[in-house]
Each structure stands twice: as structure tokens, then as C-alpha cells.
Amino acid sequence: MPFACIFVPNFPVAAIFRAEPELRAHAVAIFEGRPPLEKVFAVNENASRVGISPGMTKAQAELCSELTLRPRSPLQESATHAALLDCAQSFSPCVEEAAADTAILDLAGMESLFGTLPEIARNLFRCSADLGIDGNVAVASNPDAAVLAARGFSGVTLIPYGKETECLGPLPVEVLFADQAGSASKGGSHKKDKEKISGLRKENEFLETLDRWGVRNLQALAALPEIALSERLGQEGLRLQQLARGAASRTLVPIQAPAVFEEAIELEFPIVLLEPLAFLLNRLLDQICARLSARALHTQELRLTLELQNLAGINPELETFGIPSESDEAADLQSRAQHFVSGRQSKFCRTLRLPLPMLDPKLFLKLLQLDLNAHPPGAPIIKIHLIAEPARPRSAQGGLFLPPSPEPEKLELTLARIAGLVGEFRVGSLELLDTHSPESFRMRHFVAKTAPPDKLRKTSEPAEEEKSPVAALRMFRPPLRASVTLENGEPLRVNCSKKKEVQGNVLWKAGPWRSSGDWWERKAWARDEWDIALQNRDEVALYRLVHDLLGGGWFVEGTYD
To answer: What sign does the CA torsion over 53, 71, 177, 142 have?
Structure first.
């Protein structure tokens, strides 16, 4: 039964490179801790060449002018780990989360879908690279052999069945304990930290013992006699020997974590302008869309959260305005400024809901730009967090005899541009309100509805029978103010000055129909409606006449066609 393993060397640095790809050619060091006790946690190969090593203080590392320092980012490491699992789950439904930097796949039955094992290994390596992850891929007959090969060999490695001991022999014995570092990058509680410390001590004891024996690679460890090894190192020594031989066998523990697609960037300096923000949003959208594409998913909702800079500590220099800093006026101005700043929100959230599931990072970026233009954050931004809700891709059935309709992506972008010109609540589709008030509606987000394929009318079906015509009321925008002559409280003659054809004697009338409502609010209304027939010269026309009981006016609201 074949297994594959994806291992990300130097995981904290790889997470930074995924967020900032331009740093790959530079010397980079990752530091952590509280100032002034910050220490270098991880470095890349270029930083090691210039003399930077883990354990150095940040002050010592800053002396190197060629070095780029970055703080350790748990958010970026979490996003990189999620992207690693997305890459693995795109090839197999059975994936084990061995460590933050390691994922193991069960490839049983996957050859009929993705090709031979070498092709699967190369596609895994290519998929991880597309997601911004510099990882090693190894395929072997058991999970532990695949993990050791991925941690020991760079690139793509394929171990044939029965050749595990021969292929793993040149690797140093340190690869057997690399899982301690991978699990340490996950973090955890105080109890787990104690367990990790005890595990590291035990690891050092094993390495010292093997070094005194002259055992420095897996081939030498695999050749030791089992009984003598068991007498000196116990069952743990036999387990390590089985791993060195590539003969260990176990079942995977697949993960059941929900699909979460989120990316975040912590900024070194706050940004104010929309152009640099759009540049960073473009990078986050590309990463999220690549992860969604790897899982064959789209998104219908994007949630953007911007953490704003806290301006409470800013003290304006009032002396530059001619105000002494110790005066009562200065104290009053400072208290007002602190009260104004404290009322600001530390987080700015926007939600972009799409009419249909989509997967176009350029479209998402343009929609977010238009939304941020209409709703600016109002303060410098120090952190960007973007979440995409996964959705299944839409399925559409085209028709040869149906008129072409605009693509949903282009239609959504056009509506967003119109909303930026006329207002957010003036674009969309009408939604009637549950009230008797005439013409009561509100604007809601436009969602295109398409009929399912089985509902589409076939050309071979006979046409429907023509129905009898129905009178339609054509409304006047705005209603025409009219002068009405009454007789016994009923309209006798109507005269409209703005439209000469709407005047004459009332030949026929029906009504009144009185309606009122919303008396508990300021938008109370009450009206009488009449249907009348007017004779103007030789023509007779039907109209809707309305008497506003609260406003005290008469209006011709429309005509019947």
C-alpha cells in the first residue's frame, strides 16, 4: 500500500516566504520573544552563510547589514499549514496531520485517478509550489519510511518496495527525531511544553549514546543486533531501529478538520493609501483562490477584517499652534482628542457577498477596491485578515435557442461600479414590503435566477394559448397634481394643468377605496382611491385618482392601457 509525505523544511521561514515571496533571495532571520529578550528562532541558508545562527539575540543579528529580520507570525504559519493540508487533500481523502510541517497521504486506489506513483509525486510537488510552499515529497510503502525520506532528501523521492533500508541508509540519525521540532512549532499548553522538554532531553540522550557507539546514519543503526540494542536502549531503541530499516507499519489517523480558507498579513509599518492595500489584497486573494482551486471549490462570501492602528498614544504638539502645553486649553484639547480616538474601532470589517459561487481573484480585488473606496477604514492599517467561505462550483446549462445573458462576474462588477456612483442602496432588485402602502419596496442585492434545465421550454412543445388581454395601470412619475370639483363628496370634474389631455368631466367612477397605515411611525399615510373615466373632446380614458387625506391634495396616479 503506497503512502506519500509532504514535508516543509524550516517551516517558520517557509511561512514568511509564502507571505513575502520577494525575500527568497535575501538573508532572512526569524526572531521571537519579548523585547529586549528577542532571540533568533530560525534562519534560511543565505543567513547562515553570513554568520547568523539560531539563538543569537536580535541586537546581535541587527549588526549584519545584509540581514532581513522578521518576527515569527503564528497566523502565517497557521495559514501555511492549512495550505499544506489543502494540497494533500486534493490528492487523497485520507490525510494525517503528522506535524505542522508534515502531512501524510494514503495513495491506495489513487493511481487510477492521478496516474502512476512518480506522476503523483511530481504533481504533489508542483501543487505545493503553486500554493507557495517549498516542500519535499516522498513516496514509500509505509508512512514512516515516506516521512524519513521527505525529511532527509530534497525534491521528489520515490522508494521502491523492498528497498527501504538501502534508500534510507545514508540519512543521519537526527532525522528520526525531527518530529519533535515539527510538533514544537504548533505550540500548546504548559503541560504539553513540559512533555516536549522531556522529549528533547530523551532525544539528546539517545543521540549522545549512538554517537559514542559510532552510529551516525540509519544504515549503521539498522545493522545493530536487536537483542543487544534492546538490552541497552529498551523498546524505544527497537522502535528506532525499525524506523531506520523502513520496516515500521501503522495505520493513518485521518484528520476531520473543517475546510477553513483564511489568509493574514501582519504589517511592519502601517499603510494608509488604497494602492498598497490593494497590492497586499491581491497577494492574499491569489493564495486563497489557489487553495480553493486545489480543493475544487469556489466562494460566495469574502470577509475582510482590517486591524487599525491605535492612535490613543499620540500626543499632539500643541505648542506649534501657539498653545502652551501646561495651560487649561491644552488639557481640554488633549482630553477631547483622547475621547475622540478612544471611540474609534480597532477593527474594520467588510463582507462581500456574491450572487453565485465564483473563483476569480482579479474580480474579487476590483470588488473590494470599489467597496473600500465607498467605505474607507479611516485609520492606518497594521493587519489584514481575509476569510473565504467555501461553496460548490455552480453548474449552468446553456441552450442553443436561448438569448445570451451577461456573465455573472461581469454583471456583479458593473453593479458595483454603478453603486459607487449612485449609492449602495440604489442599485439591485426590488423587493416588495409586507404592507398595504402602495409602491412600498426596498432594494436588495441582485441575484440572477436561472431556470433548471428541465424547466426550459423545448422547441417541440406547442405554444401556449393566447390569454385575454388584461388592463394594466401605467404609473405617472411623479403623480400629476390635479384640481378636482366635487359633488356630494364625489369627483365631478378633473383638471390637470401639467397635462392637458388629463382633464374633463367624470363620466364613470368607482370607489372610494380607503386605506391607511403606519400610524405608529412618522411615515403615516391615509388615502382614497378612485377609478374614473374622463371625456376629453372625443376621447374617453380611464385613470386612477388619489386623494391624500393627510396632505390634502388630489393626484392622478396613472392611466389604464
So the answer is: negative
In a domain, 418, yes or no: no
**Contacts (Cβ under 8 Å, ≥6 apart) of 134:** 8, 9, 14, 17, 128
Do 511 and 379 belong to one domain? no
Count the domains in the chain: 3
Same domain, 283 and 241: no
Q: How far is CA 299 from the centre of its chain?
A: 8
Q: String of b and e for 521-554 (b: at least 16 CB within 10 Å)?
A: eeeebebbbbbbbbeeeeeeebbbbbbeeeeeeb
Give tens-digit pLDDT for 313-370. 444 444 444 445 555 555 554 555 454 444 445 888 999 888 888 898 999 999 999 9
CB contact at 8 A, 169 and 217: yes
Quote the pTM value: 0.70
Task: Compute the distance between CA of residue 481 and CA of residue 497 in angstroms, rounded to an integer.
Answer: 8
Q: Are residues 190 and 313 in the same domain?
A: no
Q: 293 in the Ramachandran plot: left (φ > 0), alpha (ψ -120 to 50) or beta? A: alpha
CATH code: domain of residue 381: 3.30.1490.100
Residue 182 inside a domain? The answer is yes
The CATH number of the domain holding residue 204 is 3.30.70.270
Q: Are 409 and 415 in contact (CB under 8 A)?
A: no
Place of cell 537483542: 227
Q: Is-cis flag, bond preceding 36, omega within 30?
A: yes
- Answer yes or no: do 484 and 556 share one domain: yes
Q: Which of 374, 391, 408 is the last residue of a domain?
A: 391
Among 245, 261, 287, where does a domain finish? Answer: 245
Separation between Cα atoms, residue 531 and residue 544, nearest integer Å: 5
Residue type at 135 in one-letter notation: G
Cα–Cα distance for residue pair 385/381, rounded to 1 Å:
11
Residue 405 lies in a domain: no
Domain membership of residue 144 (yes or no) is: yes
Same domain, 514 and 386: no
Question: Dihedral sign, CA of 29, 33, 34, 35?
Answer: negative
Q: What is the pLDDT of residue 434?
A: 76
Mean pLDDT value across residues 36-62: 90
Q: Under a CB-based contact definition with an 8 Å cutoff, are residues 38 and 141 in contact? A: no
Domain that residue 485 falls in: 473-560
pLDDT value of position 126: 93
- Of 77-81, 123-127, 259-263, 514-518, the least confident: 514-518
Burial class (CB in 10 A: 0-12, 13-18, 19+), 27: buried
Q: β-pairing, 95-99 with 102-106?
A: antiparallel
Q: Where are the beta strands (DSSP E) in 110-229?
A: 136-140, 156-158
